[in-house]
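Protocol step 4 of 6.
Sequence for Polysaccharide deacetylase family protein (Panacibacter microcysteis) entered exactly as in the expression construct, tag removed. Do not edit the line below.
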Amino acid sequence: MVTFIEKDCFNHCRINIELSIAGIILPYTSIYICVRIISILMDDGTGRCSRILIATFYFSFISLVTGCTNKKLSQPFNQDSSYSRKDSLLTSKETPDNSISYDTGKRYIYITLDDGPQHGTMKCYHILRSLGVKASFFMIGIQGMEKRARLNVDTIRNAYPQFLLCNHTYTHAYHNKYKLFYGKPDSALADLAAAQDSLRVPLKIFRTPANNSWAIGGKYRSPQLTRAFCQAADSVGYKAIGWDVVWNFKNGATPIQSTTEMVREVNLAFDHHEAFTRNHVVVLAHDRMFEKPQYADSLYKFIALLRQDPRNVFETIDHYPGVAFNK
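Step 5 output, C-alpha cells:
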C-alpha cells in the first residue's frame, strides 16, 4: 500500500510538473525533450530510488526555469502605450551640432532626461514633441539592448533636431558603484565608449552618473570623485554635461517639487546667475518620474509655464556654449 501511494503521488506530481513545463515549452523545448527521454529510461525497471532521483531532477529543472524567469522579469521593460512603431522611423536631414547664434535678449533652457530607455521615456518624448520643445536624452547602454528598448533609442536618435541622444555610460557606473567606477578612470572611459558604440550616440556628449560634473573644452567643475574621469574623457574629445536645476524625486520616481516650484528655480538660476554658463540653464529630470499620468501632467505644465515667457528658448545640449565638434 505504501509503495502504491508513493508511486501514485509521484505520478501525480510528475503530471503537474510536466503540465507546467508544457506551459513554457517553446523557449525550453530541447531541455524538455531531454528530461522526458531520461524519465522514460529511468522508469524502465527502476525502483523507488530512481523515481526519487527523477523527481528531484524535475524539481531542480523547474526551480532553474522559475529562477531565470523571475530574474528576467524583476525589472521588466514595458513599452509605453503611447509608443508607435512609426516613431522609430522618423528621420531628419539635419545632423547634430548644427551651430546656432545666441540672442542676448533670450534665456536658453536645456531640458535633459536621464537613465533611459526606461518606463516613462516615450511619455516624455510625446509630451515634449506635442509642445514643440527640444530636449536631450542621456541614455544607459545596457538598458538599450532589448528589442523594445532599442526601438525607443532609435526613436530618440532619429528625432533630431527636436531631440538629441546622449551618453550616460554603459553600466551606470557599474550599477551605482560610484567609488569603484570613478576610481579607475581608464575602465570608466571604456564603459563610456561601450555605451557610445552600442547606442550609436551621434556626438561625444555624456553625463556622469549621480554626480554633477562639467568638462567642456578644458573648463571643469566637478566633485573630486569624478575629476580624473572627466579629465580623461575630455582628453579624448568627450564633453561632460552637468546641471543647474534638478527636479528631485523620492521613492524611486515620484517628483518632489511642484511645477511652480520648478519654474521658480529656473528663474532664480537665470536671475542670480547661478548657472555654469550665464544665461544658459540646464534642467535635469529622469524619464521614470513621468510614467504615471498625474506626473506626466506635471511635466506638461512645467514646460507650458516656461513657454509663457517669451525670453525662453529651448535647445538641445549640442547647442550649449563650448560644446562644438569639428566636422
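Step 6, annotate. The radius of gyration is 26 Å.
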